[in-house]
Amino acid sequence: MPRSETAISILGFGDSLTAGTPGYDPLDQSGDERSQYGHWLTLLGKRERGLTIEYDNQGVPGELAQHMLPRLRKIMNQRCYSIVIILAGSNDLGWGRDARAVYGHVSVLWEHALDKGSEVVACTVPPVGFAYPGLHETQSRFNEMILGAAAMYKNLIVADLFGGLSNEDGLLIPEFDSGDGLHLNTEGYRCMGELIWLRALRPLLNSTI
What is the domain extent for residue 168? Predict the structure, then answer.
């Protein structure tokens, strides 16, 4: 990322938690724009750094990580991005997929974005709001793999969303729950945007000074 840059392009890529479900639909840009973490990133970038962030919300509700690569390729063939934020795997884990297999699909997404010259923010998957032992165990293994990824890839940084959105029981903090135990409300997306800014984007920007 050039040091003199005052405007940066950021791709938010993933499933419904990127899209902003249930409050926002990026397909037709309808709903409450505050119900997407990219809205808060844009505000923080302007407030703290005077940046103009060109944020592209490419979240598709329900999409599995194992199906995402063709879409990411198409998007990144059409436009270059300074930073790509990837949050994927929640749906795969919810369908009972093996944590290591899901990690394999997600890591391919990181590698494609890195190969295109972007810096990558790899996000851990957020908690859910209900006790589901099998899911929690698999999710924990998956997130541990993601947390270790920064040491394996140059130009990749991890944003631990699970750690910032969960309570002492490892469940989604109720104040962030949209009501279904899976998706976030406006306050939850605000917190998510702040976590990505503080734990990933700010350090990336600091490294260019």
Answer: 7-206
Whether the CA torsion 110, 69, 117, 123 is positive or negative: it is: negative
Which of 35, 206, 36, 11 lies closest to 121 in space, CA to CA? 11
Contact present, 130 and 167 (Cβ < 8 Å): no
Residue 2 forms part of a structural domain: no
Does residue 50 form part of some domain? yes
pLDDT tens per residue across span 49-80: 999 999 999 999 999 999 999 999 999 999 99
Quote the pTM value: 0.95
The answer to the question of residue 62 being in a domain is yes
Q: What is the pLDDT of residues 174-203, one digit of tens each?
A: 999 999 999 999 999 999 999 999 999 999
CATH value at residue 199: 3.40.50.1110
User: In sequence order, what E strands does the chain have?
Assistant: 7-14, 24-25, 30-31, 52-59, 83-87, 119-123, 156-159
Please say whether the dihedral angle defined by the alpha carbons of residues 154, 156, 162 and 165, taken in this order, is positive or negative: positive
